[in-house]
Amino acid sequence: MQALLVFLSIAALSLLASSRALDPGRFPALARLAASGFLFVLLGIFLGPSVAGVLTERHLEAMRPVMALGLGTAGVLLGLNLEPRLLRLLPRSVYLSGLAHSGTAFFFVALPLLVPLVFTSARGLLGAVGAAAMLGAAASLSSGHSAVLAWRAGRLDRARGLGVALLTMLDDAVGLGVLALALMIGAASNVGEGLGLVCLALLLGVMCGALLAFLTHSLKDLAELTTVTLGGVVLVSGAAAYLRVSPLLAGVACGATLAVVGGRTSERVARALGRVERPVFLVLVFLVGCAVHARDYWAWVLMPAFVGLRFLGKMLGGRFARRLVQQTLVLPPRLGYALIAQGGLALCLVAEYGMLVPGGLSRRVLDVVVMGAVVNELLAGQAFQYVVDPPRGISETSADSDKVAA
Amino acid sequence: MKGAVIRLLLLMVLLAIISRAQVLRADSGTPVMLAAGALLLCGLFAGKVAKGLGLPRLTGYLLVGVAVGPYALGFIPNAGVKGLELVKGLAVSLIALVAGTELRLGLIRRVGARVALLCAAVCGVTFLVCFGATFAIKPFLPFLADMTVPQALAVSALLSTVVVSFSPTVTIAIVQETSARGAFTEFLMALVIIGDLLVMVAFALAAGLTKASFGGGLDVTELLGGVGWELFGSVAVGLVLAVGMLVYMRGVKQELPLFLVGLCFAAAEGGTRLHLSPLLVALAAGALIANLDEHAGERINNAIQQAGLPVFALFFAAAGAGLKLDSLLTVGPAAMLLVALRGVAIWFSCRRFAPADDPRLKRYLWMGLISQAGVTFGLAALVSRTFPTFGPQVEVLIVAMITAHELVGPVLTRRALAASGEIRADDAQGTA
């Protein structure tokens, strides 16, 4: 019955999202949240156990397989985007640039927030370090969708749009790396066992990815290809959930293996999976929203600090990043403003952490990041204006103009 | 076919590894998604292998489900298979929706009366034969042995009512797979659907009599009310759904497969909660749409064929995984006797009562009536819940019979369609 309820809620919101009520001209913030899927987070928070209570904790427990499927799908899509040829072509300065903006935001958030987490943690220093690292990892992530949309709308030139998108793709690796570390610390009784579980997730993903590449290799029929792809994604997510390891990491390993060994098949698989990406994402963020405990007052205290520190980290990190790739990549002035939107992966990270690491601290991390991500999404709309319409005094250098022309 | 065999074997190796890895973990998570992914992929490639061997794909789905399921190799835990009930309801609704679009008024006028008469004859003869046999072997059936004669008669009647039932799901899935079209196929589909309605009414009556024989009293009003609600309530809800679908199809011209899957999901879940028959709800919806707007009926048919492949493969593989092979050992002889008698009764009544104008009906129709699946499972579970003293043992007997019928039925159904000469393609895209 809970599945029916979730379906009906999402169907209702889909209808609402397509209605005139969300006209960007009249309600830009609401329209932005609907377009990015974050409106579903808010709906989840509202219907979840801590507010209206339409969905109870028992319902959410029963919906865990669906959440695992969403995380696994996100992981596979992420892994499929790892284009080995493209990654090899990128100069080292681009990697350093990605690391600079994400690393700065990571340290800006993780270090100061470690202090209150230590004092409120029942799991000792190690637990607090893991939780602070997850806050930092979520803060380090940025979404490139604003840049891509601005480029498609003609408000940002192609080179700059793609430059921002590339940097935001590279920060995913930081987020996933930190997630793996945090799971090693928190998901098992000792670090050795935690490391074993992370390795098991990666191994499972590699095996499923290789098998999926073989299964889809000679399939010509689109319906069959879609079915096998979906089956493979469900299998890797389900196996990870069954073995209580990370579906997200297993999915990334699966997608990356497929991208490496699958050749052209991986492109067809990505296209097939792209057809279900949006509905799966919406269900996932809805469930993540349901898991938020809106009455955790500590989370409300930490959230403004999280948003503020991340903002500062992105501003400074953006400057570092721009300086590091001056010769190779064209980036807009005031890059930091283009990196404010947080995107769905941050939600995936904390949802995964909440699923696998027991205790109140992981729940608080989820509360802070989810609410913070909604605020960041709202801020991002305004912030991006500074990227496409920079104030007077900040103009392109002639070198930038030459690179854009090239 | 060799490629499909290798892929299937590799999948099973992966499942074996996952199953071994789970043993090493102190705590395990929920296996529902694992079951879904594994059964979907295994079903798909087993279907290809079965096709290569000249069998229906559906048989491949069922057999691989049995193989990897909890009662054979045990790669998929029982909890995972049970968690797929939702998919089963969805598949039944989708299949019934397609079947409904085939029920045109013209067809009902043309063959309705003849089908109803033959259905009554087949069900009547089969019921009498099974009823007589069950009562005759009373001393050998542990749950009947200690009952009084009236009680044993009532329980025999209840068991025989369930044993009579057919499987519209399997029949429609095989018709979809083979793209069979023609008078014989129409007759077969109409017969299994009407047979199902007949069994629903007969089951309600037999359950009421059984309750009365055990001292529970016979409340005729409640009995008729229950049957009426299930039949007419289902049709009414189906008509409402049909209007909803038509409005959607005229107003929103995209994402029809997704919409239909969502609606069938809601119909299956909601129907079960309201004590309606999800099969009848979807059947009525499909029939109304096809008769109001022929083009809309065709669009639904095409849309479900797109969404059908994963749903059908998963549904039948899950059905196979749920078959309790051990029950075949415990109640095997009695179950096999009833299977054989049911088959003979159906064969005899078809030979004797089928319309003479089409000799194919006399010769081959019986083969299409052997399958049993979802409806029979549902009725067996209902017997178990309603009569806790003897119901679970009756359920084991019926499940043993279903196991045999599921393995043989699809092959016979396809053979009947092939012999009738109405199979158009042996591999319709995107179906069973």
From TrEMBL, chain A:
It comes from the Bacteria. This is Sodium:proton exchanger. Keywords: Membrane, Transmembrane, Transmembrane helix. InterPro entries: Na+/solute_symporter_sf. The chain crosses the membrane at residues 31-55, 94-119, 125-151, 163-188, 194-215, 222-242, 248-264, 276-294, 337-356. The lineage of its organism: Bacteria, Pseudomonadati, Myxococcota, Myxococcia, Myxococcales. Coiled coil: none annotated.
